[in-house]
Amino acid sequence: MHHLVMRRPHLRDLPPVNPLPPGYELRLAAGDDDLAPLAATLTAAFDDPWDADRVRRSLTEAPDVPAVYVVAWRGRPVATASSRWLPARFPDAGVVHWVATHPEHARRGLGAALVAHVLHDFVGRGHDAAALETDEYRIPALRTYLRAGFLPDYEVAGEDHRARWSAAMPGVLGS
Question: Which InterPro entries match (predicted)?
Fold first, then answer.
């Protein structure tokens, strides 16, 4: 079974990158010092083990990831999102990749700020659209993506995802 896919068919009328709460800073990942905190954030957010080597392979040194952004709290990354380029799969689109917020810093708008920032990054890279992969149980993330102008893609790699989207929407819409 494939991840759900969402697409933003254009990069007009992008959401603003809202100011972060005091003490937080949005910036590019800054080398080896950010690897361990990024691994801790991704592990906590996805309940999947990450270490510095996986962060390097999947993000900071991945040839298809031109930028890894973080939100740092007192200099330490606690949220992240990346700009990815997968022309074989999404030829006209930048891909929002590995959006994560450490649970201790959730519900502060960090994910929304990162997603908006990555969308603006795509404009600078000449993309015309955006895409992302997610899962139906990531309800706060789905809300963030819908607010940022992403729409569900109902068919992915020959799989019909309408039932999965229908099951997720009551939670997304708060009903």
Answer: Acyl_CoA_acyltransferase, GNAT_dom, YpeA/RimI_acetyltransf
Residue that is written with structure tokens 């706060």 in the block? 140
Q: Give the strand pairing for 93-101 and 129-134.
A: parallel
Q: Is the pLDDT of residue 175 over 60?
A: no
State the average pLDDT for the chain. Answer: 95
Task: Check residue 173 and give its pLDDT.
Answer: 86
What DSSP state is assigned to residue 49? -
Phi then psi for residue 69, to 5 deg, are: -100, 150
In CATH, the number for domain 4-173 is 3.40.630.30
| pTM confidence score | 0.94
> ∠ CA(54), CA(138), CA(5), 5° rounding?
80
Please give the C-alpha separations between residue 61 and each of 29, 64, 65, 104, 128, in angstroms, as whole numbers.
Answer: 11, 9, 8, 27, 25
* Res. 48: pLDDT tops 70: yes
Please tell me the number of Cα atoms within 13 Å of 64 on its side-chain side: 15
CB 26 within 8 A of CB 70: yes
Find, among 158, 164, 159, the residue nearest to 142 by Cα: 164
Can you tell me the distance from the alpha carbon of 122 to that of 150, in angstroms, rounded to the nearest whole number?
14
Q: Domain locations in the chain?
A: 4-173
Neighbours of 90 (CB within 10 A): 19
Distance linking the first and last C-alpha atoms of the chain: 26
